[in-house]
Amino acid sequence: MLLWALCRERKILLTPPSTGQVKENGRDADAPHFCQHLVSIDFSPEQAELHEPATYIRINTNAAYTQESVFATPRSLVCLKTSGSMASPKLVMHSAEKIAGNVATCIDRFQLTEIDRISIPVPIFHMYGLGAGFLPAIITGASIDIQENTNLIKLLDRERGFEPNKAFLTPGLCEMFIKARRSGRLYDLVVTAGDRISESNFLRFENGFGKFINLYGSTELGAVATSDPDKPLEIRAQGFLKPMDGVNTKIVETETKMDSSHGHGEIYLSHKFGFIGYFDANGKPVGHERGAGDWFPSKDIGVPSPDNNFRIIGRCDNSVNRDGRLLPLAEVETAMESMEGVNRAIVIPHGESKRGKGIIAFCIPEKSDSLKVEDIKQHCFARLPGYAIPDRILIINAPPRLANGKIDIQGLANFYSSEMINDSGEKHE
Amino acid sequence: MNKSEVVDRIKGLIASELDVNLKVAEIGEDDSLFEDGLGLDSVEIVEFITILEDRFDVQFSELDLTKELFRNISTIADFIMEKTPQ
After folding, report:
1. Where are the domains of chain B?
2. Complex-level ipTM
């Protein structure tokens, strides 16, 4: 359907499903003004027939549509909306040609072929599901199983009928496999993206379910890098990433004082198949049109490896100054997660300490009541410099979670109160 | 334990250990566990499985993790009764 729409209409906008909020004048609250039609799929109609698209595809006219569009261009365009997890959502415009180039790099990296049976239980209106999963799969002629709002039980039910050999999963689904799936299906390849996955979980997943690689990318640039499928598991599990064809990287030290002996810095990326630019809801460009050689600041801190690969350490805006050094909090988390029994560590800034900004670590154990704060602290002392040791470590058996399964870090921060909580994460009344 | 006791214990676990904001009295043994019933989301389903395994000392194999078995509390109680020495 998407390919048909690309050929016919040439200008496609992909956004998350509408919230159903319709303004009084009949306008869809989520639709930009330059969209003439809104296409949606009803996943559960009673009378749906696979070969009769009219039974499950809905096409509605956007009452907010205005013809004053900048799209008087012969180019085929695809517009995606950023997730908005880090800032307000933006409209990101791609040319269809560059999307196709991006797709080709994914086909090559994931070795997709027409005999593959590919499970895609992730949203296909975001770049990961669409550009790395759905489009590469459909172009190679592979069989595809798309699922919406799945859970472990539904997913296993579908797998029994579909028998996939490759899958695109979220880290949340991977964690569910590790926790509750006993006899693993050995996939030829599983790709994950979207959130950090700890080294121990990476090892556990691959040992249980087959070859595992992590994808690093964005709405703006599409697929940027993945774990190198040809590298041994131990290297892939440490988070090293190999750029896709057409991607160049450079790591630039920030102005803040930093322990440069590790080569840490912000990752800048250029992508031959990157986006054209940002647009507003009226279809007007925001900023200049981007070229293939323009550097894009990822806002991620990374470290290079000798073979031109790199590893993500954390977000630039998730670092603090301690003892005059910039400390990416994800580096502390990674060190803590290397301890046996620690499933996940989350480090947040909190107040001030004698070293500068105070930091608190929340540790989520693999099994309840299996960790001791003193042991975790000793583990940190053996792996981290003094300025990186958390001021306080709390063990949280059941962290708050968002609806999408990710840990609610803001909720954890709100939960914390030094006078109210003991080291086991239990509140004092 | 008879089935009624297993059902009551499962209801208690859902009310006390899962983040579902339900009281025991609001949970029916024939209610669907999913969005058309008790509304356990993807994370809570996994929590529920691990809690059942831990508290009843049973293990769900891959073949046990089906929509039929996880249809409602009654079907889960039947499985636990079958796997637990009486």
Report:
1. 3-83
2. 0.91
CA Rg value for chain A: 23
Torsion of CA A311, A332, A344, A382, to 10 degrees: 110
> Both A360 and A216 in a single domain?
no
Residues from chain A that touch B65, judged by Cβ atoms under 8 A, are 152-153, 156, 180-181
Give 10-residue mean pLDDT values along chain A (429 residues).
Answer: 50 55 47 73 67 76 71 69 65 89 96 96 88 94 88 91 94 87 86 83 93 94 96 93 95 59 80 90 78 87 87 82 81 89 88 85 84 91 89 86 70 66 48
**By three-state DSSP, how is residue A24 classified?**
coil
Same-domain status, A197 and A51: no
Residues A262 and A118 grouped into a single domain: yes
pTM value is 0.80
Q: Number of A to B CB contacts under 8 A, please give it.
A: 57
CA atoms within 13 A on the CB side of B1: 16
Chain B positions in Cβ-Cβ contact with residue A180 (cut-off 8 Å): 46, 49-50, 60, 65
Nearest-CB residue to A182 (from B34, B43, B61):
B61
- The verdict on a CB contact (< 8 Å) between A181 and B41 is no
Contact with chain A for residue B67, Cβ under 8 A = yes
Q: Which CATH number fits domain B3-83: 3.10.28.10, 1.50.10.10, 1.10.1200.10, 3.40.50.40?
A: 1.10.1200.10
Q: Which two tokens stand for residue A197?
A: 């996955």
**A246 contacts A98 by C-beta, under 8 angstroms:** no
Inside any domain, residue A427: no
The beta-carbon neighbor of A182 closest among B34, B35, B62 is B62
Q: Are B65 and A401 an interchain contact pair (Cβ–Cβ within 8 Å)?
A: no
The C-alpha of A194 sits at a distance from chain B's nearest C-alpha, in angstroms, of 17
Same-domain status, A113 and A32: no
Bigger pLDDT: A83 or B77? B77
Q: Which residues pair with A192 in a beta bridge?
A: A169, A214
Greater model confidence, A285 or B53: B53
> For position A331, which CATH number holds?
3.30.300.30
Q: Give the domain range for residue A170.
A: 89-274+283-315
Q: Could you tell me which chain A residue has the CA closest to the CA of B49? A: A180
